[in-house]
Amino acid sequence: MTVKRVLIFAPILLILFLLQSYFWVPTYEQQTRGNPKRLGGYIAGSIGDASLLNPILSADSASSNIETMVFEGLIDRDEQLRFRGRLAISWQIYEEAFFYVNRSVNIPGLGTPTPEKIVDLLEKAKQKKITTFPGLTDSLANITEISVIPPRHYTIIKQEKDPNADKQKIEIKINVDSPAKIKLVLNRVDQDLFQNLSHLLGKNYFDSFPGQGYLKTDHQLGKDKLTAYTRELLPATEHNPILKFFLRPGVRFHDGHIFDAEDVKFTYESIMNPKNLSPRISDYEPVKQVTVIDPLTIKIIYKRLYSPAIGTWGMGILPEHLLNQKALKTEAMRLGKDPDSFSMRHSNFNRQPIGCGPFRFREWKSDQYIVLDRFDDYWEGPPNYSTYVYRVIPDLLTQEMEFYAGTIDSYSVQPHQVKRLEEDPRFQRFSGTAFGYTYIGYNIRRKPFDDHRVRKALGMAVDIEKIINYVLHGQGERITGPFIKQTDYYNHNIKPVPYDPEGALKLLQSAGWKRGKGGWLEKDGKKFEFTLITNSGNDLRKAILAIAQDAWKQIGVDVRTDLLEWSVFVQERVNKADFDTLILGWQMGIEPDLYQIWHSSQTNPYQLNFVGFKNKEADDLIVKIRQEYDLNTQVEYCHRLHKIIATEQPYTFLYVGKWTAVLDKRIVIKTVDTAGKDVYERIKPTKTGNYSFHFNKWIKLPEVPTMLDEG
Amino acid sequence: MLSFIGRSAVQKAITLFFVSIVSFLIIHLAPGEPGQVDPLNPKFTPEVVERFKKEFHLDQPLYVQYLYFYRDLFSGETVSWKDNQSVLKKIGERFLNSLPLFIVGTIITWTLSFPIGIRSAILRGRMYDRTATFLSYLLISIPGFFFAYVLIILVVTHFHVPVIGMKTFGIGDVSLTFQFMDRIWHLLIPSILGATGGIAVLSRYVRSQMLEVGGQDYIRTARAKGLPPEKIHYKHALRNALLPFVTMFGLILPGLIGGSVIIESIFSWPGMGRMAYEAILARDYPIILTVNFVSAVLVLVGTFISDILYLLVDPRIRL
């Protein structure tokens, strides 16, 4: 029967044809050891693909991996996490401070102040050594220049919502009669300047400045609006920190164009351009003005004290000549799109980026790979690898297979896979502490979590060491506060909450909770019961959920648990602060700015201080930390803040995870010594555990060098 | 015939319209928001979120969003929120990548299932039938990714050749024949894996259909006539058993666009299924909705084709 034969033989022939292709495929051996070119390339395995290869537009880790290779920022962080110059050789931070001449007060010994009188007073005080207020002496000594800005009259037009009609906007004309201002140039940033000066000018000199009297509007405005405008247009005092970068001469983009200060300014302007929808816009919001002084000097003036702003200049610099208005217009015309709505987001640049980093872009196949070539004109000297490949392999097991076979050099190794690779002599292993922690958060708005004794007792009842040993297989460490453990900001003097169920019971007893019927804790006839929630899909958190529930049951607390799908968890419970306790984690940046997570102003719905932590002293420190430019002082404030949070226990800090990375042992650091000879060294992680810090000097050798094999 | 086509076109257009509304609503009612407006990223201030919402028209009422989306879709201007690439272009590329997998998988499934199922029906209750039944249920009940992993580990550790991706990574400058054969090799395991599940299910259907038809009078007549059993099964019985498969054949068309999420993810195959899956995770509405719409169209086209096939297969049916 032909039908039967066709039905049987057609698929068999097809399968045979497919099978014979085996003889044509290169084996792994041919691809890796048999291929000398393989040694010159580094292949990184990744689970996901990049989205937009433009540092100002993308916010995902895959894209930023490629961007750090292709683009270069003005600064980055060195092995000690201190700033180090890249496209900038050096920089300078100083301050310009302003305050108005306040005629509404009497200055002790001066009477009604005039600009001249105040300048005179300050000059004299600077000469005299005042010892009663040591802070004032320092602040005065720090002033290098005192000048007067004469009164100014100007009009400003603001848009406001019409209170009578929805969505209608009305224009408000504001006449500003700005009085004379004193300008101080300071050697270094001084956040206590005005506080110290008030010892000289009178206690309420700054507070009592009647800014509102100098404003006239043509529409009736509410009191709040008026105060807001006063604060914006006529602030009694103003700090303007200034950051001046001196750029590296002779640096080129991959297309040969010379890099200069205009590119830096352009990058800043592109981020601020609302058309580009840059997710980084909030980083640069404190910037008041960016001025190019000469092609190699750029000055950034800030609106207010905000020290984390320095770190934002690690942002990759875009080539202005390829993305400016004119270039975008030409591209829009070529593609037949409307030039008015065509923005950087639509440009093809995002799929073939050009920067001045160590690698230049070659090819991108969506969801398959991205290939970069070495940039021979790199200012720091070209990297050793001639290509860098980013290979997308979404499955972790196949990633591991490819890694064993040698067709990828790195992959996101899982804790349970580490064991398998540990004893293998072919690989070297690195591990370090991650930049994030997991915690149990208590909703402080709700009883009984408003009592810090209760929060601490609950923390004491859970054996966190056990969680680390058995849930994380030892791939974690205890953490006591919200800073990154390997930075100086972290206060190592603080001891973690001990595991002590007896002590927990005693503490609860002092808070009024006593064992009642059935062994449950009770207070005023009410049983101690609440719900602990977390998101589903995270096995670690799920395990912790069960462990905590059990531990709390042991001391007589009735806990119900719930797993919620991530988006429901976040939108319905976290954002609306509708929970008793939850398990969650934070990923941290190096900057010690904790404003969004811990400041009391951030406790509203949809804000990140969802546990509702409010502490006056902590608020004060949080603000001071972000205003401080001196590292040592900042560290001191951070240690104090860390202590407050550790005492208050708004979270039970559980652990910070450890990451592990595995590399072929044949990958080493190659440098050339003064005699021109190649020197090979083992790859050593930096203090913070960053093993790829010297990536540009890495190279893969055909064999493991013997001198490196030991130890 | 013509009036049937006309009627069916109108009906399908109406269905499509409702499908478009329902799928649009489902996506928007589902919890979660696109990564661009993720409130739990401290970098995203309310202003940035607002601006993204405005750009994506998420601040408008649903019916306005609906109109915007379908206007863009029909003028071919829909772009993915993730990377600003044209959705239709992306789908086109992925479609071509998934196509070979689909074709090879379908050919193997729709050929091998018949002899296997028919033989099971003939040898009903005997050793062959029991083994086939056991194996089918085994294949149906054990998840596909498990076999995929076993196969990958076997091939990689024993034959030392790469299996993932559409071609050997970095194959470089080799002759076209080598490149072609390399691609064929990479097609082998995923398509066979895709086919095994299909064979397991389809051969069961074939078996039960054949058993049902086997009891009919005309089969007894054919036997009584003294026709060779081969001819009875493959001509008289099979033809009459085919009818339900015509419906199924119409329904495999959407599989073309759905692809196979698991197989494509495990084998790093840059196909449709993986793209759609990742889009769902990232709440990339334009991609999800377009894929949804296109597969709805394919389902309707598929049912239309199976209607026409009915006409051809069974002359008794009049439309």
Name a few traits of the molecule.
heterodimer; A: 711 residues; alpha+beta; six-stranded antiparallel sheet; six-stranded mixed sheet; 21 helices; 27 strands; B: 319 residues; mainly alpha; MetI-like fold; 14 helices; 0% strand
Structure explained in plain terms:
The complex is a heterodimer of chains A (711) and B (319). Chain A is an alpha+beta fold and 711 residues long. In chain A, the strands form 7 sheets. In chain A, strands 5-8-4-10-12-11 form a 6-stranded antiparallel β-sheet. Chain A has a 6-stranded mixed β-sheet with strand order 17-24-16-23-21-22. Chain A is globular and about 110 Å long. The termini of chain A are far apart. Chain B is an all-alpha fold. Chain B has a domain at 94-283: Orthogonal Bundle (MetI-like fold). Chain B has 14 helices and no strands. Chain B has helices at residues 2-29, 46-55, 62-74, 87-122, 127-141, 144-159, 176-214, 217-225, 229-241, 243-252, 255-258, 261-266, 272-281, 285-313. In chain B, helix 1 (2-29) runs antiparallel to helix 14 and helix 7 (176-214) crosses helix 9. Chain B is globular. The mean pLDDT of chain B is 85.
